[in-house]
Amino acid sequence: MRLNNPLWPLLWLLLVSVFAVSLGRMLFQGFPLQTNILALLPHTEKTPQATHAMDLATKELGRKLLFLVGAGKQADAMAAADILAARLKETQGYTSIQYKVSPTQMQAYAKFYYPMRQQLLSQAQRQQLEESPKNLMASAMATLFGPLGSGRAAMLSEDPFFLFSNYLGTLPNAGGKLSLNHNRLTLRQDGKIWVFLSASTLDSPFSLAAQKRLLPPLNETLTEIEKQYPSVEVLKTGSLFFAAQGSQSAQQEISTIGIGSLLGVIILLLAAFRSGRPLLLSLLSILVGSLAALVITIWCFGSVHLFTLVFGASLIGVSIDYSFHFFAEQYLPQKDRFSGLRHIMPAITMGMLTSVIAYLSLAIAPFPGLRQLALFSAAGLLMAFFTVIALFPHLASQRVYSRPNWLTRGCNLLLQCWLRPTTRQLQLGFAILILASLVAIYHLKANDDIRVLQSSSPELVHNDTKLKQMLGYQFDTRFFVVEGQTPQQVLERQEALFSQLDQLISQQQLASYQGLASWLPSVHTQQQNYQLLHSRYQQLLPEYFSKLGLKNRQQVLEELLSQPFKPVGVKQWLESPVSKNLHFLWQGEFKGQYAGIVLLGHSHSLQLLQQLQGPHITLISKADDISALFKLYRHRIAWILGGAYLAIALLLLGRYGVRRASILMLPPLLAGLLALGATSLMGETLNLFHMLALMLVLGIGVDYTLFFAEAGKRPLNTLIAIALSAVTTLLSFGLLALSHTQAVHGFGLTVLVGIGAAFVLSPLVARSDS
Predict the structure, then answer these.
(1) What is the rounded radius of gyration, in angstroms, for the C-alpha atoms of the chain?
(2) pTM assigned to the model
(3) How far apart are the C-alpha atoms of 762 and 754, rounded to whole Å?
(4) d(Cα 355, Cα 381) in Å, to the nearest integer?
(5) Is the alpha carbon torsion for 356, 358, 363, 364 positive or negative?
(6) Cβ–Cβ < 8 Å for 600, 476
(7) Got the DSSP string for 233-275?
(8) In sequence order, what are the residues at sequence separation of 6 or more whose Cβ sits closer than 8 angstroms to the Cβ of residue 449?
(9) Sequence-ordered list of residues with C-beta below 8 angstroms from that of 298, at least 6 positions apart, any chain
(10) Helix crossing, 742-761 with 622-681: angle to 10°?
(11) Which one, of 162, 198, 186, 179, lies nearest residue 106 by Cα?
């Protein structure tokens, strides 16, 4: 193509105008930034109902905030809790706030369950009625003649064996560790009285807008409480706090990476060319590439993820290679402003194509996060490349730059280490490193557990652990979704599941569980309870009343047996105040199927839980699902990486032949091995993000060798351009390696070692030409 065609700058200006206008509209309408890590992952649930239930449960549970306000003096704890509750109510963005409990709410359980008392039996009560009813009668008599007997005597005509009051005590967390004190839920621990509050956010905790709206007034309130009541301690937990910390950490790291990379580019360009024009044009190419990548990604996906911005911006930074090579040509006199570009055009074109192949190969995996990252990187790289070839010859200065001595000496020394046959030290050193890396890779282990890759502040983790221990909150992120064609079928299937979960509890493999059937038996079970209880009434009550000397025992017996069976369904339970904070247990109807969830306490074996799954019972364990996905896609990307090596090798084969293409592929291959070896030698485990980093090492490493392959008689000039590019890349990813987030750290470390090795090994190609 004609590089001096005047239409190229006009086309560039048109494209940039379109991207700029589109971005302006996006910013005006509200920038679509996504921060939820789950949005990066495909759905893994087995049925649409399970997926729907997962979304609803995550929405309900994820928006909960829990607080405990504690102090040595009850008055201080309650006064501080009053301030916190008042401020939460004043702040827009909360759907419900649970603080004070009225006597009416406390009486709700009795009002709802008492009319159906003859239909309610705990598992232990049923077993006793079936196997040892005489013992039940003896136990009831012992209660009557005990210290509290006079208070229970009035219940003889309605609940002769006192089963109902005992049943209420078996409801999940009935009262828990909290007790009512001045209409507030409180507990005593560690010499303090703690007041409990809870709230639910209106928007997702992963929403940046929600974090900015809710957290500042909350933090101001906590600071105010600390000043007014220095002895008060406030424990808090909730997804909002963890998500905000993750967002803040990511934003800080983006700023650090961006500033570090920018400063590196500025210092290098000014030191290498002693002119501001190469600096401004190089930054222009990166800026335009990032602009195009951002807009195109939002066009295709509807939003851009924070993960994509963190990694994609760094990948686009690779495009500065083209700028460095263009300006490195200015160290030599040129016939005209396009002659330097003509000389490097084959190299930067091949480099761009191989990098795009490497990045787009990530889109093969059905992984939304990787597809978005692949598109962002490839689009940015293409636009940055087009900026160099369309604009730089028209805007660059025509003067010849002088090469700095420090840069020339350093690059010449490295070049001679590979070009001189008698210089063996560097070559021997690399051979030893590669052998050591192969041994280390043999011992390299993988760990895809998402819990290991997450990074949370010690304070948040301490608050979360302590608060849940104090409340006796045992439920983790695993739960079952139970489906059915009717609400009653869901309850019946939950009850069948409960019997299996009880076995796990008896084996100490599960701490607890809770589902809707824990609060409301199925109609079938209610009927069985009613019939069992009435049969035992007929069998035991005449003797029981006779021993008690009850005068109107026949009348009482007839009244008890005449109590009609009135089935209570899910709809009635949902309409009752009893279900106020438990609606999330019922997922309702979706596509002709009903579903409810069964929460699980701490479990020791995922495999045992998975064995309980069936056609209508699905285990949801998001952390384990994500970890399994990371493992799956780590394997897939390993294959994709191998395919990318093969595709790039075939592309090079057509241009350079078998021998030359093999030499060109050797430096990036060895660089990848050294990066993996370093991961193992530093005691780290392999995960998905190391594989992503190896893809980048391949793309950049091939660029370096291609630049040498097309350098002709100018290897030193080429190495200077590669050195400038490599130092900039190492600065960017060196900062990533310092990240507190394990995933980002692993990515940065792998790229740091891989790119450093690819740079040092790249003159191998120049040696093969000599």
Answers:
(1) 35
(2) 0.72
(3) 12
(4) 8
(5) positive
(6) yes
(7) EEEEEEHHHHHHHHHHHHHHHHHHHHHHHHHHHHHHHHHHHS-
(8) 623, 627
(9) 22, 26, 32, 304
(10) 40
(11) 179
Q: Where are the beta strands (DSSP E) in 294-354?
A: 304-305
Beta carbons within 8 Å of 664's beta carbon, 6+ residues apart: 652, 656, 702, 705, 706, 709, 765
Q: How far is 629 from 42, CA to CA, in rounded Å?
A: 9
Give residue for tokens 């921060």.
35
Encoded tokens for 604: 């020791």
- Report how far residue 140's alpha carbon sits from residue 153's, in angstroms, rounded to the nearest whole number: 10
Average pLDDT of adjacent 10-residue blocks, the chain of 770 residues: 76 90 83 67 60 70 85 90 90 83 71 89 89 84 69 74 83 67 84 89 78 88 90 88 76 67 76 82 87 90 78 69 81 72 82 79 72 87 91 79 78 78 64 85 85 72 81 73 93 94 89 89 94 91 83 83 90 87 84 87 83 87 78 84 86 84 88 90 86 84 82 74 82 72 81 90 70
Nearest C-alpha neighbor of 717 from the set 191, 324, 175: 324
Which tokens go with 509?
A: 């493999």
Structure tokens at 555: 């009348």
CA 688 to chain centre: 14
Helix (H) or strand (E) holding 193: strand 192-201
**C-alpha to C-alpha distance for 671 and 386, rounded to whole angstroms:** 29
Which of 76, 106, 258 lies closest to 178 in space, CA to CA?
Answer: 106
**Backbone dihedral region for residue 448 (phi beyond 0: left; psi -120 to 50: alpha; all else: beta):** alpha
Q: Give the span between the Cα atoms of 231 and 233, in whole angstroms.
A: 7
CA distance 403 to 622: 56
